[in-house]
Design goal:
Elements (H helix, E strand, L loop, with lengths): L2 H18 L6 H7 L7 H4 L5 H14 L5 H14 L12 H17 L2 H5 L5 H13 L6 H14 L4
The structure holds heme C (HEC) (2 copies).
Length: about 160
C-alpha cells in the first residue's frame, strides 16, 4: 500500500471511531475503562434511561471495571445524555437473569473474554450446543441451570 493510501485508511478509521462516540465529559473514561473486556459496540448499540445505565455501569464494576464512585457518575452521565432511551425505570433483573449473569461473569469469563460471547449470535439450539461443549471443557454449569442460561443467551445474543 502506498503511504498516502495508508494514511487515508488510518484517517478513515479514526473518523469512523470518533463518529461512534460523541465528545463529552466521560468519553475518555469510557474508552479507557470500558473497552478492556469487550469492544464498545454493545455500548453504542444500547439506548436506555439513566437508571438503567447506572445499573449497567455498576454491574460492569462488579465484573471488574475500574471506576470509583465519582467516575461511575461521570460515565453514567455521559452514557445517559448521549445514548438516551425512555426514562422509564429500569426493570430489575429476574432471578433467572441474575443466575445467568453470575455464570457468565464467574465461569464463562474465566476462560475467554466477554467479547467471545457478546459477538456470537446463535439460535437457542446453537447456544445449547455451545454450552454443552463448554461443559465438556469443565465449565460446570449445573444441569438444572443449563436451560436457564441457554434461554438467557438466546434471548440476549440471539440471531437477528
Ligand atoms: C472486567 C470485564 C468488563 C469490563 C471492564 C466492562 N465490561 Fe461490559 N460486559 C462484561 C461482560 C462479562 C458482559 C456480558 C454480561 C451479560 O450478558 O450478562 C458485558 C456486557 C456489556 C454490555 C451488554 C449488556 C447488555 O445488557 O446488553 C454493555 C452495554 C456493557 N457491557 C458496557 C460496559 C461499560 C459501559 C463498561 C465500562 C463502565 C464495561 N462494560 C466494562 C464485562 C466487562
Ligand atoms: C474451561 C474453559 C472455558 C469455559 C469455562 C468456557 N469456555 Fe467458551 N470456549 C473455550 C474455548 C477453549 C473456546 C474455543 C474453542 C472451541 O470453540 O471449542 C471457547 C469458545 C466459545 C465460544 C465461541 C463460539 C463457538 O461456537 O465456539 C462461545 C460463544 C463460548 N465459548 C461461550 C461460552 C459460555 C457461554 C461459557 C459459560 C457457560 C463458556 N464459554 C465457558 C473455553 C471455555
Amino acid at each position: 500500500m502506498s503511504t498516502v493510501r495508508f494514511i487515508l485508511a488510518l484517517t478513515a478509521m479514526s473518523v469512523a471511531m470518533s463518529q461512534e462516540l460523541p465528545d463529552g465529559e466521560g468519553k475518555e473514561l469510557l474508552e479507557e475503562r470500558c473497552a478492556g473486556c469487550h469492544s464498545l459496540k454493545p455500548v453504542v448499540s444500547l439506548q436506555q434511561g439513566q437508571d438503567a445505565w447506572k445499573r449497567l455501569v455498576v454491574q460492569m464494576v462488579g465484573y471488574g471495571a475500574q471506576l470509583n464512585a465519582k467516575e461511575i457518575d461521570v460515565v453514567t452521565g455521559y452514557l445517559s445524555s448521549h445514548f438516551k432511551g425512555s426514562a422509564t425505570a429500569a426493570t430489575p433483573d429476574t432471578p433467572e437473569e441474575k443466575i445467568a449473569k453470575r455464570y457468565i461473569q464467574g465461569i464463562c469469563s474465566s476462560c475467554h473474554e466477554a467479547e467471545v460471547i457478546l459477538s456470537t449470535r446463535a439460535t437457542k439450539q446453537e447456544w445449547l450446543d455451545i454450552v454443552t461443549r463448554m461443559n465438556g471443557m469443565d465449565a460446570g454449569v449445573s444441569q438444572r441451570d443449563v436451560e436457564l442460561l441457554v434461554n438467557y443467551l438466546a434471548t440476549k445474543y440471539g440471531r437477528k
